Amino acid sequence: MMNGAGMGIGGFWVVIVFLVVVVVGVVAVVVMRGDRGRGTVVTKEPTVHEGTARDVIEMRYARGEITAAEMRSMLDDLDHRR
Known about the structure:
Layout: H1 8-33, H2 53-62, H3 68-81
Helix pairs in contact: 2-3
Protein backbone atom coordinates (compact mmCIF):
# COMPACT_ATOMS: atom_id res chain seq x y z
CA MET A 1 0.00 0.00 0.00
CA MET A 2 0.95 3.64 -0.28
CA ASN A 3 0.54 4.46 3.39
CA GLY A 4 -1.24 7.73 2.56
CA ALA A 5 1.53 8.98 0.26
CA GLY A 6 -0.94 9.98 -2.44
CA MET A 7 0.56 9.84 -5.94
CA GLY A 8 4.03 8.95 -4.72
CA ILE A 9 7.32 10.43 -5.90
CA GLY A 10 6.57 9.67 -9.58
CA GLY A 11 3.36 11.68 -9.45
CA PHE A 12 5.26 14.61 -7.93
CA TRP A 13 7.51 14.87 -10.99
CA VAL A 14 4.52 14.69 -13.32
CA VAL A 15 3.00 17.70 -11.54
CA ILE A 16 6.31 19.62 -11.69
CA VAL A 17 6.72 18.93 -15.43
CA PHE A 18 3.11 20.00 -16.04
CA LEU A 19 3.64 23.28 -14.19
CA VAL A 20 6.84 24.02 -16.12
CA VAL A 21 5.05 23.39 -19.43
CA VAL A 22 2.19 25.70 -18.42
CA VAL A 23 4.57 28.50 -17.37
CA VAL A 24 6.59 28.21 -20.61
CA GLY A 25 3.35 28.28 -22.61
CA VAL A 26 2.09 31.40 -20.85
CA VAL A 27 5.43 33.18 -21.38
CA ALA A 28 5.40 32.22 -25.08
CA VAL A 29 1.88 33.62 -25.56
CA VAL A 30 2.79 36.88 -23.81
CA VAL A 31 5.94 37.30 -25.91
CA MET A 32 4.13 36.56 -29.19
CA ARG A 33 1.36 39.05 -28.41
CA GLY A 34 3.90 41.84 -27.99
CA ASP A 35 2.44 45.30 -27.39
CA ARG A 36 -1.10 44.29 -28.36
CA GLY A 37 -1.79 43.30 -24.78
CA ARG A 38 -1.13 46.85 -23.55
CA GLY A 39 -3.71 48.49 -25.78
CA THR A 40 -1.24 50.20 -28.10
CA VAL A 41 -1.91 50.30 -31.80
CA VAL A 42 0.91 49.22 -34.07
CA THR A 43 0.74 50.82 -37.49
CA LYS A 44 2.90 50.36 -40.52
CA GLU A 45 4.92 53.42 -41.39
CA PRO A 46 4.16 54.91 -44.81
CA THR A 47 6.54 54.01 -47.59
CA VAL A 48 8.89 56.83 -48.47
CA HIS A 49 9.76 57.11 -52.15
CA GLU A 50 13.00 58.75 -53.05
CA GLY A 51 13.48 60.53 -56.33
CA THR A 52 11.34 62.79 -58.42
CA ALA A 53 7.63 62.40 -59.04
CA ARG A 54 8.50 61.12 -62.51
CA ASP A 55 10.72 58.40 -60.96
CA VAL A 56 7.93 57.34 -58.61
CA ILE A 57 5.44 57.08 -61.48
CA GLU A 58 7.87 55.04 -63.57
CA MET A 59 8.58 52.71 -60.64
CA ARG A 60 4.84 52.19 -60.04
CA TYR A 61 4.45 51.28 -63.71
CA ALA A 62 7.44 48.92 -63.53
CA ARG A 63 5.90 47.15 -60.50
CA GLY A 64 2.58 46.81 -62.35
CA GLU A 65 0.67 49.09 -59.99
CA ILE A 66 -0.57 51.30 -62.84
CA THR A 67 -1.22 50.77 -66.54
CA ALA A 68 0.70 52.37 -69.39
CA ALA A 69 -2.23 54.72 -70.05
CA GLU A 70 -2.32 55.79 -66.40
CA MET A 71 1.43 56.37 -66.45
CA ARG A 72 1.23 58.53 -69.59
CA SER A 73 -1.65 60.50 -68.09
CA MET A 74 0.26 61.13 -64.87
CA LEU A 75 3.42 62.13 -66.72
CA ASP A 76 1.39 64.51 -68.93
CA ASP A 77 -0.11 66.06 -65.79
CA LEU A 78 3.39 66.62 -64.40
CA ASP A 79 4.58 68.22 -67.63
CA HIS A 80 1.59 70.59 -67.76
CA ARG A 81 1.97 71.71 -64.15
CA ARG A 82 5.35 73.28 -64.81
